[in-house]
Amino acid sequence: MxxxxxxxxxxxxxxVAETFGAEYDTDRTLAWLSENARIAAEGINGSxxxxxxxxxxxxxxxxxxxxxxxxxDDLDAVGGVDDDDSxxxxxxxxxxxxxxxxxxxxxxxxxxxxxxxATRSTTVGxxxxxxxxxxxxxxxxxxxxxxxxxxxxxxxxxxxxxGEAFSNGAQFPGDPSLPVSETANCRCELSFSAT
Length: 195
Description:
By secondary structure, this protein is mainly alpha-helical. It has a domain at about 1-60 and about 120-195. The chain is about 50% helix and about 5% strand. The protein is built from five helices and three strands, in the order ααααββαβ. Strands 2-1-3 form a three-stranded antiparallel sheet, covered by helices on one side. The model has no long low-confidence stretch (mean pLDDT about 85).
């Protein structure tokens, strides 16, 4: 996540800085991007773990199934678990003990990865835009919605000094200080005013 965030920040931030005749200093971004990537990864992994725990709640684990559950719970062992689950019997009589996990990851591939990508793109991209504007000495930022059904339509066009929060408490669209309900799938963006 950090490598993608660094590349995105350099590209997006560089474009904004260039607009204002400045150069984007990526070294100044590393601490924030590193911490943000760590927190995002923990959130994504925590959500996945919670879904797995809920799917397996109440499932008695014994024999090979217990060994497999221990392997899955042990993050150090995940890489060493093979794909052959033919020795696992579902304690509840289904086809496989791993079917709930397969369903969770199939859903993640179908929809969740796109939501994560959109959210991360907004968070990192808009943070980089704001950071570049700050590095360039820009005075004001303006919230822009990009869709007709945005949760943030009331903010469209709101202008504040660069260092101040918008009326929703965010410094930028996708600001991780906001609840997930405010950041998930947000596609809003910032524009700037030099005066």
